[in-house]
Write a structure and sequence with these properties.
The complex is a heterodimer.
Chain A (H helix, E strand, L loop, with lengths): L10 H11 L2 E7 L3
Chain B lengths: L1 H9 L3 H10 E7 L4 H6 L7 E5 L5 E6 L4 H18 L3 H14 L6 H16 L3 H13 L4 H5 L8
Antiparallel strand pairs in B: 2-3
Helix pairs in contact in B: 2-4, 4-5, 5-6, 6-7
The chains are: A alpha+beta, B mainly alpha.
Amino acid sequence: MGKQIQWETSLTVAKAKAKKEKKLVLMDFYNNL
Amino acid sequence: MGCQQLAAVTYPDPNVCFSVEKDFIPIQVDFNKNKALVKRFSVKWTPTIILFDADGNEHHRFIGFLPPEDFIAQLVLGKGKVEFDQDHFEQAMQCFQEILVRYPKADAAPEAQYLLGVTKYKAGHNPKELKLGLEALQRDYPNSEWTKKAQPYALIP
């Protein structure tokens, strides 16, 4: 099993991490239907 | 369907995983469960991928399934747009050139070629860069909408 993308679920956390790590935010809107 | 294909084909790809983790903090939002974010970002269809900076400014979005190479090319294009929007022209050019070298057949490539010409012009204020960009588009992507968009640059002496 290879490495998997570690998805955040909180936008606030994602933005804080992006700021701290000098990265961008990739937001994927999905549905399970 | 598109979301399931992204999850089954694109996201498990090692190169996609590397590209995402290198430059992005990824977040998934359930379209049916988070109506506040759906409304805030005006999302009407899934999958919708939005790239924004840490301050929340959106720079790029795309909808629908994409296979790994096209998906990565869109990520690099988005990164280039962020650099361009922040007037970091050298870094933006590196992103657009990366797409043209590594993913020349991706659908993002003609837009990258267009933006490369624009970025070179913005960096050096030489209008001939726009015309050179058009010539590259006419040569490599003659049927692209970006070639049409660059057509006025043919008038540059």
